[in-house]
Amino acid sequence: MISRKIILSIVSLVIIFTLAACSGKQETAPKGDSGSNVMEGHAGMNHTGSSDVPEGLKESINPTYPVGSSTIIHADHMPGMDGAEATISGAFDTIVYTITYTPLNGGEKVENHKWVIHEEIENATEQPYQPGDEVVLIAEHMEGMDGVTAIIDSAEQTTVYMVDYQDTETGEDVTYHKWVTESELSPVE
Questions:
Q1: d(CA 61, CA 45)
Q2: pLDDT in tens, 71-119
Q3: Separation CA 157–CA 164 (nearest Å)
Q4: Which pTM does this prediction carry?
């Protein structure tokens, strides 16, 4: 009887600590020109997504990393991503943007968010947007992102990838993570 109480107490504590760990701040990037994009909190980040892609997004015909190939991620958009071995689950040619926005749900301002693609901009023009342009997003990478007005920080024509990987910190399987750029990947050696 006492051992059941101990086990229930331990399970209760684990649940409480898990819930407390999941109630962090919205994603915010450090300020300054360090080039770092390590985020302080990712409570609103949709780590795992669906295989659905925005309308009009074109698959890459000859990507450096074809669907099914293995790569190493060299990006720190979220904890547990940098250095993870990933499997490519989609490759697309588009324009990627870093953006700054304040979430619709009242969270803190997010600066230099990587990445939003051209097809995730409402009523996107044919021409790429330029730094300083205001756009409305139709993306759901983060809570409070869909429908928000954002400022373009940078733009780049490249191949973007959807990846599946195992979080190096938690061991959690992440599937259909959107987006990683070609420059953020390298072959598995």
A1: 30
A2: 999 998 888 999 999 999 999 999 999 999 999 988 889 999 999 999 9
A3: 23
A4: 0.73
Nearest to 153 by CA among 92, 76, 80, 98: 98
Tokens coding 64: 């450096």
Q: pLDDT (tens digit, 9 = 90+) per residue, 144-189?
A: 899 999 999 999 999 999 999 999 999 999 999 999 999 999 999 8
Which CATH number is correct for 26-187, 2.40.50.140, 2.30.30.1210, 3.40.50.300, 3.40.1080.10? 2.30.30.1210
Per-residue burial over 135-165, b = 16 or more CB atoms within 10 Å of its CB, e = otherwise: bebbbebbbbbbebebbbeebeebbbbbbbb
Amino acid making up residue 41:
G
